[in-house]
Amino acid sequence: MDDAEHFAKLFNAIQVDKVQLLPFHQFGENKYKLLNRKYEMSGYTALHPEDLYDYQSVFLEHGIDCYF
Length: 68
Description:
This protein is mostly helical and 68 residues long. It has one domain. The chain is 46% helix and 9% strand. It contains three helices and two strands. The protein has a two-stranded parallel ribbon with strand order 1-2. The radius of gyration is 15 Å and the shape is elongated. GO terms for molecular function: lyase activity.
């Protein structure tokens, strides 16, 4: 959650008051294979939906409206 804390502090500094979280997924990976292109995100895993609630709570604690 350190990254969420850092983003929340940055958003407060630049007066961002609303954030929408978009969950990461691997749906596009096959398209890259079909195009014979390297999929740069292959080493990343998708977050579980409950993980988004953890991020949301950090932003809300900093007074930033957060939804997904």
